[in-house]
């Protein structure tokens, strides 16, 4: 049996609550399939660890993680720890150290999911955003001069390398070709006359190698408007780190809310572990109440299965999430229900078994 070694970092706030349900689903998948399994190792890193040790993770944390096949992250952030510390000293250091340069974010309106837009059908919101995940505006390059003085100056540099731009844009073209979908480039070249002009040039250069892929280019402000007014325009979207961060949260808002937003941080060459996470944050206001929605965590588990080559199981999990939503009997309060986090996870596991047996034509009796 193939064993996948998974490093689990439940993190802060609702992170441990939702990650437990994703682990539960993955264990059920391996039990039903029988050809592969998971070996989970839990790491107690995050803001609580920081408050006790002055670090978000141990100094050798990256060395501890590098031998795993994947990382499953719950959430990062808590009151009392500045956001730039919780982000840069755990999440971003993992992304950068393991060259997870692709951030893959599905924006898909599932059957039964709430949508704030009127007149929108399920098939109108079905896109994947390919976000550059290692440099750009989040490269961490800059200066802070004359701190605390009247002439204080802060400089934040955005870093766009040819290698960095080419590899994420090529990944998006390959995905669009594989899935026979359109590709939309989102930038802001009219205002950012170096970085985004360069980005657009690289997009056009690589595009000449993919004459079969139909492409569009939009400024980020126009893209934001069309995400809301005409989401059916988009199938595969490629964009920079900052713009991707903002657009995907907007995408989550139109596709059921943050409780249904999953993300994958990929090292496509598999030289290092990739990382999978719900992207709703730690939600400290509801932490410990057992009402956090675990469906995004379960969705990110399906992304992990896709990455490992078990796409059929990934599809089954998405179908199970849709069944949870459409039946409406076991939903957390954010979706109008009264169920607990673990009850939603249990329902998903139960439906997973039924879906598997149905697909296999097994007799439950």
TrEMBL record:
EC number(s) per entry: 1.1.1.83
Xref: Pfam families: Iso_dh
InterPro entries: ICDH/IPMDH, IsoCit/isopropylmalate_DH_CS, IsoPropMal-DH-like_dom, TTC_DH
UniProtKB keywords: Manganese, Metal-binding, NAD, Oxidoreductase
Domain of life: Bacteria
SUPFAM superfamilies given in the database record: Isocitrate/Isopropylmalate dehydrogenase-like
Cofactor(s) needed by this chain: Mg(2+); Mn(2+)
Boundaries of every Isopropylmalate dehydrogenase-like domain copy: 5-348
GO MF annotation list: D-malate dehydrogenase (decarboxylating) (NAD+) activity; magnesium ion binding; NAD binding
Signal sequence coordinates: none
Catalytic activity: (R)-malate + NAD(+) = pyruvate + CO2 + NADH
Name of the top EC class for this enzyme: oxidoreductase
Family: Belongs to the isocitrate and isopropylmalate dehydrogenases family.
Name of this protein: D-malate dehydrogenase (decarboxylating)
UniProt source species: Youngiibacter fragilis 232.1
């Amino acid at each position: 049996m193939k064993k996948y070694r998974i490093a689990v970092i439940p993190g802060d706030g609702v992170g441990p609550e939702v990650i437990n349900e994703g682990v539960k689903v993955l264990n059920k998948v391996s039990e039903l399939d029988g050809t592969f399994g998971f070996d989970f190792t839990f790491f107690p890193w995050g803001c609580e660890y920081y408050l006790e040790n002055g670090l978000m993770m141990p100094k050798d944390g990256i060395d501890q993680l590098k031998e795993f096949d994947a990382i499953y992250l719950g959430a990062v952030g808590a009151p009392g720890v500045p956001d730039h510390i919780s982000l840069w000293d755990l999440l971003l250091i993992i992304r950068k150290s393991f060259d997870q340069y692709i951030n893959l974010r599905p924006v898909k309106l599932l059957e039964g999911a709430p949508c704030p837009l009127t007149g929108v059908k399920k098939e109108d919101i079905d896109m994947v955003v390919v976000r550059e995940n290692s440099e750009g505006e989040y490269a961490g390059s800059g200066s802070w001069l004359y701190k605390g003085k009247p002439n204080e100056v802060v400089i934040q540099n955005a870093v766009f390398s040819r290698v960095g731009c080419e590899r994420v844009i090529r990944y998006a073209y390959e995905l669009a070709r594989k899935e026979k979908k359109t590709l939309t480039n989102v930038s802001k070249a009219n205002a950012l006359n170096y970085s985004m002009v360069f980005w657009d040039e690289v997009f056009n250069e690589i595009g000449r190698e993919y004459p079969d892929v139909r492409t569009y280019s939009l400024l980020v402000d126009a893209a934001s408007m069309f995400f809301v007014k005409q989401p059916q325009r988009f199938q595969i979207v490629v964009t920079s780190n900052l713009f991707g961060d903002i657009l995907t949260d907007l995408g989550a808002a139109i596709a059921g809310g943050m409780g249904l937003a999953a993300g994958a941080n990929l090292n496509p060459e598999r030289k290092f572990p990739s990382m999978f996470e719900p992207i709703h944050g730690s939600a400290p206001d509801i932490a410990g109440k057992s009402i956090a929605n675990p469906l995004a965590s379960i969705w990110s588990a399906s992304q992990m299965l896709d990455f490992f080559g078990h796409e059929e199981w990934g599809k089954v999990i998405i179908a199970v999430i849709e069944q949870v939503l459409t039946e409406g009997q076991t939903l957390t309060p954010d979706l109008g229900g009264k169920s607990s986090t673990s009850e939603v996870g249990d329902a998903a596991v139960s439906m997973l078994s039924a879906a598997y047996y149905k697909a296999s034509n097994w007799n439950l009796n």
